[in-house]
Amino acid sequence: AQSVSQHNHHVILSEAASLELGCNYSYGGTVNLFWYVQYPGQHLQLLLKYFSGDPLVKGIKGFEAEFIKSKFSFNLRKPSVQWSDTAEYFCAVIPEAGSYQLTFGKGTKLSVIP
Amino acid sequence: ETGVTQSPTHLIKTRGQQVTLRCSSQSGHNTVSWYQQALGQGPQFIFQYYREEENGRGNFPPRFSGLQFPNYSSELNVNALELDDSALYLCASSLLGNRWGYNEQFFGPGTRLTVL
Question: Which residues of A touch B30 (CB under 8 A)?
Answer without folding.
Answer: none
